[in-house]
Amino acid sequence: MERPNAWKAYEEKDLAQVKAIGEDYRQMLSQGKTEREWTRALIARLEKAGYVNLDQVIAENRALTAGDKVYANRMGKAVLSFHLGEDALEKGMNIVGAHIDSPRLDLKQNPLYEDADMAYGDTHYYGGIKKYQWVARPLALHGVVAKKDGAVVDLVIGEKEDDPVVGISDLLPHLAMDQMGKKMSEGVSGEDLDLILAGQPLKGAEKEAVKATLLQILKDEYGMEEEDFISAEIEVVPAGPARDFGLDRSMILGYGHDDRVCAYAELKAIEGIDHTPKATVCGMFVDKEEIGSVGATGMRANYLENAVAEILNLLGDYSELKVRRALQNSRMLSCDVSAGFDPLYASAFEKKNAAYLGRGVCFNKFTGSRGKSGSNDANAEFMGKLRGIMDKNQVRWQTAELGKVDVGGGGTIAYICALYGMEVIDSGVAVLSMHAPAEIISKADLYEAVKAYQAFMLEA
After folding, report:
1. CA distance linking residue 166 with residue 155, whole number of Å
2. pLDDT at 378 (0 to 100)
3. 151: buried, middle or exposed (CB in 10 Å: 19+, 13-18, 0-12)?
4. Most buried of 33, 253, 313, 458 (most Cβ within 10 A)?
5. Residue 427's beta-bridge partner residues?
6. How many Cα atoms occupy the beta-carbon half-sphere of 93 within 13 Å?
């Protein structure tokens, strides 16, 4: 049952939309490299589409009704959107959820030191990375610095054309016999992922003069003291914009496709709904998936449940039982990327059940690893319903699993939402070089994901 390549079916109008959506996404991906940056961008676009901050509605004790649009901002790192439908909320929602965090390096709370006339910054990697991929490449700093007086300073260094970049050095091959004899996972250790930040001594400084130069720059340009790193969140990410990939420009190369490509497709689908839906449409853009969905902004927190309770209250229909019913009766696409089949590493895949770039949006009935451990295994009935919706709306789609059975695996937020009792299945876009500093997706798959998510929102 090989699925056809989506490009073969496109007419000129389709190709124009593929191009436009791909360019809009490429720019958003380039400008947003952290969950905070994506939250700000998402809220700006949701407000342009008519969504109102739920906190404002609560403060005004404003009654809600079908057709209203609200969003919840969770600590500036996660967003929930709700387009209220004609049906009672307790009948369930059509939920599409993706995560907006990506693997990266984080500066430690006490990061700065000097050695061999160079100033360095200690990092701690976030999420699953191949550590050797982060050396000998230009890196940028993105984040916030929270001062003791409550002021919060945004910081972005390394993205403008005339900005300096930072990076991590590697050992020259002439001296790397021992390093190259190690396993790839041991060639570069986590504690060796230290950023070179400066190399010029400050005139007049007698001790740690290069570090003094760095501290002077931070003070002059950002009003930062060394102690401010204690209350800072500074992420180290690849510098530079996402780029069209391939001589035919059919793909996009960039940092953070996992999982911002699905988050973008979800947003684009939400923006395209121009009427009151039958069932309430909920969009979820969540944090911390790459480290287990933990913390107050991860999916394990109860902010979905809390937001539903608040909305029911503003509808004048609150009860704990109705909150539970609203969640249990919901249908959800847990949107996360799939590993695209790569013929250069074919031994890791089972070809009949792999995702292929250009063949449309993916549906993963289960994820997990080996014996489906840690998986949400979707019901056959739900999969059958999705097939009908996708085919009715002429969505190009494929099924996939994450590699051969005994090779590895991975998880998403699906199993967490399934705890409420709702129907959930994983859906996403195929990616090459997943979790690398530069990943690859097909513009056709992004286009089909937008179509798929909007069809699900309106018809599930």
Report:
1. 14
2. 85
3. exposed
4. 33
5. 335, 363
6. 30
| Residues whose CB is less than 8 angstroms from the CB of residue 151 and which lie 6 or more positions away in sequence, other chains included | none
| CATH 3.40.630.10-classified regions of the chain | 6-102+255-459
Q: What is the pLDDT of residues 359-386, one digit of tens each?
A: 999 998 887 667 777 778 888 999 999 9
- Among the CATH numbers 3.40.630.10, 3.40.190.10, 3.40.720.10, 3.40.50.720, which is that of 6-102+255-459? 3.40.630.10
Backbone angles phi, psi at 402, to 5 degrees: -90, 80
**CA–CA gap between residue 318 and residue 162 (Å, rounded):** 55
CATH topology of domain 104-238: Aminopeptidase i, Domain 2 (2.30.250)
What is the percent of the chain where pLDDT is above 70?
99
Positions of CATH 2.30.250.10 in the chain: 104-238
Alpha-carbon gap, residue 421 to 168, rounded angstroms: 46
How many CA within 13 A on the CB side of residue 196?
16
In angstroms, the CA 180 to CA 171 distance is 10
Overall average pLDDT of the 120-137 stretch? 97
Q: Is the pLDDT of residue 203 over 80?
A: yes
